[in-house]
Amino acid sequence: MTEASPLDAAAGAVRALGAPHLPDQWAAAPLTVVMPTYNEAGSLPGVAEALLALPLPGLRLLVVDDSSPDGTGALAEDLARRAEETYGHRRVDVLHRAGKDGLGRAYAAGMARAVADGAHHVLQMDADGSHPAAKVPELLGVALATGAGVVVGSRYVQGGTLSDAWGVHRRLLSRWANAYAGTVLGTRVRDITGGFNLWRADAVRAVDLTTVDSAGYSFQVETKYRALRHGFDLVEVPIHFEDRTVGESKMNLMVQLESVAVPWRLRLRHERETWVARAAGAARGHRGPLG
């Protein structure tokens, strides 16, 4: 099975069924959506409402707020309280962090918390409305049907589309970033930089989030690459990626520089580990069975 195999039969069957038709047992599977926020008060309520309205009784939302100056953290607590009153049990939780420390570290903290709390699957999702909530049941269905360790909501497989609001420069930059990382790392993942990813809990544990170095958006590249290195299958499902309508992008020069450096760091580390393993194997061979 190739690393980015679509597993056509199973994944295609789930996509054909559509979101409302997941078996009850699948729909009730414990799924935690991890959603980092920093100044997302304008968009978070609508995204949270769309998620909780899905026909997925096992879905929980974990908001990871980095002490947003606009009060997103307090708003998330209010959403959690109102959701509990509506559904009769806790469906929204909030993880407050001391300050802005990078998207990757926010995801690492939230994903580790979700798995520790018993989630069978963990979904990374932006709070700005760019990721389609309506696709979540399909991602979960594909994960359960195929057994994939990671299911990527992909902009760049057949059927994936981008918002018309994206200009030519932004489209070319995104395409280049994916082609660059894929070439350096030798993967066939079409959207390795994408942030709409559903993880099996054991895949989250395997990548060892405590040792992930990437603080920014390159967290997406590093964690997918680690999952592939650990032998997990990765399936890409086409999505429409919408442009944010509220708030501001968190992309800056330092994040872009990290994204350029990380693929090479991962490749060199992999080559070094491979060399060390081969050298150790050769040394054992020279010693012979008696040592």
UniProtKB/TrEMBL annotation:
Swiss-Prot/TrEMBL GO biological process terms: glycolipid biosynthetic process
GO cellular component labels: membrane
Keyword Chaperone annotated: no
Coiled-coil residues: none
Gene3D superfamilies: Spore Coat Polysaccharide Biosynthesis Protein SpsA, Chain A
Domain Glycosyltransferase 2-like: 32-205
Family matches, as InterPro entries: DPM1-like, Glyco_trans_2-like, Nucleotide-diphossugar_trans
A molecular-function term among this protein's GO annotations: dolichyl-phosphate beta-D-mannosyltransferase activity
Pfam families: Glycos_transf_2
Keyword entries, A-Z: Glycosyltransferase, Transferase
Entry annotated with the keyword Transferase: yes
Domain of life: Bacteria
PANTHER family: DOLICHOL-PHOSPHATE MANNOSYLTRANSFERASE SUBUNIT 1 (PTHR43398:SF1)
Similarity section: Belongs to the glycosyltransferase 2 family.
Entry protein name: Dolichyl-phosphate beta-D-mannosyltransferase
Organism lineage string: Bacteria, Bacillati, Actinomycetota, Actinomycetes, Kitasatosporales
